[in-house]
Amino acid sequence: MKASEIREKDSATLLADVETARKDLFQLKLGYRTGSVDNPYVIKAKQKDLARMLTILREREIATEIAAAEEK
Description:
Blueprint: H1 3-7, H2 11-34, H3 41-71
Helix pairs in contact: 2-3
């Protein structure tokens, strides 16, 4: 998933996607350890997607804090 695609989503949807990605990542790691995951790159790709989502959420949080500080 590209960062531009993630930025198009609203924060509520993005939070739901983060929870889903965390559950998927857990299942992939479990599957890798049991030998049922054929392509371990899928785990890295999911980790990077999760990191992108969390980064964009943090960017929005910081922007909100800055806007609130400027209003004061």
